[in-house]
Write a structure and sequence with these properties.
The protein has 6 helices and no strands. With about 170 residues, the chain is mostly helical. It folds into 2 domains: about 70 residues; about 70 residues. Helix 3 crosses helix 5, helix 4 runs parallel beside helix 6 and helix 5 runs antiparallel to helix 6.
Length: about 170
């Protein structure tokens, strides 16, 4: 939780308490009028807190999504190109983009395993990374394990947190 949201929540609470104190001590108001104004202040504060909570949830969701994308890129990206020549980097980026497009058309885990087997036979680590990424996103555990095994053998960068090689 961001301290900004905590600080804003505290400020809402303090401001509301101050206003309620002023209303409660106003002797020109009837008991009923004080009650209605205090109730209105509390309702307004509740609305402010609800809006603040919505902002916090939206910010948290954006942060989680950003972190998820960063981790997927780290696990299934082209980090191995850090020391490559610019022409190799562009070639591998284009090849990886094509492999991702191919992987996106894989309908199920069985097809992913077949494509992965073909990638292993052809020593196509970029296609294996693309299939590993798709398997991770779809939750296909067997294909993800197989892809991890291949990537660890070939020196590619896939790290999905599923290091088991058993099916």
């Amino acid at each position: 939780m961001s301290t900004r949201f905590v600080d804003q929540g505290i400020k809402i609470k303090e401001t509301t308490a101050h206003r309620i104190g002023q209303i409660a001590s106003d002797t020109d108001l009837t008991e009923e009028a004080r009650y209605r104004r205090i109730r209105a202040e509390k309702e307004a504060a509740n609305i402010q807190r609800a809006e603040l909570r919505e902002q916090q949830l939206a910010e948290d969701a954006a942060s989680v999504e950003s972190e998820r994308k960063r981790r997927i890129t780290s696990a299934f990206g082209l980090a191995h190109l850090a020391s490559a020549l610019p022409s190799e980097i562009q070639r591998d980026k284009d090849s990886y983009r094509t492999a991702l497009d191919l992987a996106d058309n894989i309908p199920d885990e069985e097809a992913a395993l077949r494509k992965l087997s073909r990638a292993i036979d052809l020593d196509d680590r970029l296609l294996a990374l693309a299939i590993a990424r798709l398997s991770y996103e779809k939750g296909w555990r067997r294909a993800r394990r197989s892809a991890n095994l291949l990537c660890s053998r070939s020196g590619a960068t896939s790290r999905t947190g599923d290091n088991s090689s058993s099916g």
